[in-house]
Amino acid sequence: MSNIKPSNELSFLQAGSLIRRGGLVAFPTETVYGLGVNASNDKAVASLFKAKQRPEFNPLVLHLVDAKSAERLAFVDEKTKMLIRRFWPGSLTIVLKRKPEAPISELVSAGLDTIALRVPSSPIAHALLRSAACPVAATSANSSGMISPTIAAHVEESFGNKIDMILDGGKCTVGVESTILDMSEEQPVLLRSGVVPLEDIEAIIGRVERKDTKESIRHYAPKLSIRLNAASAKKGEALLGFGDAPDADMNLSRNKDVTEAAANLFAMIRELDKGDFTGIAVMPIPEEGLGVAINDRLAKTLIQKKQDNSKK
Ligand code: AMP
Ligand code: MG
Predict the structure, then answer these.
(1) Domain boundary at 182, 216, 250, which?
(2) Could you read off the pLDDT of 68-107 as tens digits, one per residue?
(3) How far is the CA of 108 from the centre of ligand 2 (A)?
(4) CATH code at 65?
(5) What is the atom index within ligand 1 of the atom nearest the CA of 58?
(6) Residues 127 and 155 in one domain
(7) Distance from Cα 129 to the centre of ligand 2, integer Å
């Protein structure tokens, strides 16, 4: 049986409740269909990456009902406020520094101290977000490597019954992805071209640097060095366990569940990074399911660290 539901009051209520409880719901925005989860729920966010079968953790975009919610989650400066007044609700995604108290899973930001925010203009997206009454993290509702979906049937092709509901809102009116602008540093940077033209943004805030997300994304790197595939900790090191590990300082998943490990990864590394250790030894994580993305991110963390050290 198909889990595509027509948009109406009842399905909005069901979809909102599913999201609050940790489910996966695909919904239309004016740009493309998004696959959304409760952004405060680590496990739900991990299950989104699992469904998407992404071999790596890309940060997700937080979809909000209004601009006020943005100020509760991130630091919004004056220039950004001008952009928000002009382009929200709409197809501009803005990357900002997240507030430390923001109740958003670290996995949404892939461990970064920034967060991408958008208030979509689609009335159906709006109704869903209102019903969910929690920040919703979403990514385009296609399996990794497939093009972004603009009708409900595309979403079904990618996910079938692996997700809890597909809200049908017909064809996305815009059908092109949102523009992504990084406002987290002094100099605004365009991370992805999209619906909102760069000239319109520059007319408001002045010169914007152009970069491609793939090159410009800095991966989260802890202060401490990380050692992979460790059987045990050396003197002074913290041990981040996986599976049975009575000596571990923290454990990604005692049950060897890679999805649970993904849900815990960034929060645990951050926690250990604050402690009085000389480094973090991570026990082996199998290359299956989200284990691939976990190992990819840990390896990139090591590369980032080398680059940072060589700049010093
Ligand atoms: P998609 O998930 O396909 O809709 O694409 C969302 C895009 O937003 C991805 O390319 C992400 O890399 C980018 N993105 C989300 N959050 C951030 C962030 N905190 N910093 C930089 N880029 C981000
Ligand atoms: Mg995409």
Answers:
(1) 216
(2) 999 999 999 999 999 999 999 999 999 999 999 999 999 9
(3) 15
(4) 3.90.870.10
(5) 12
(6) yes
(7) 20
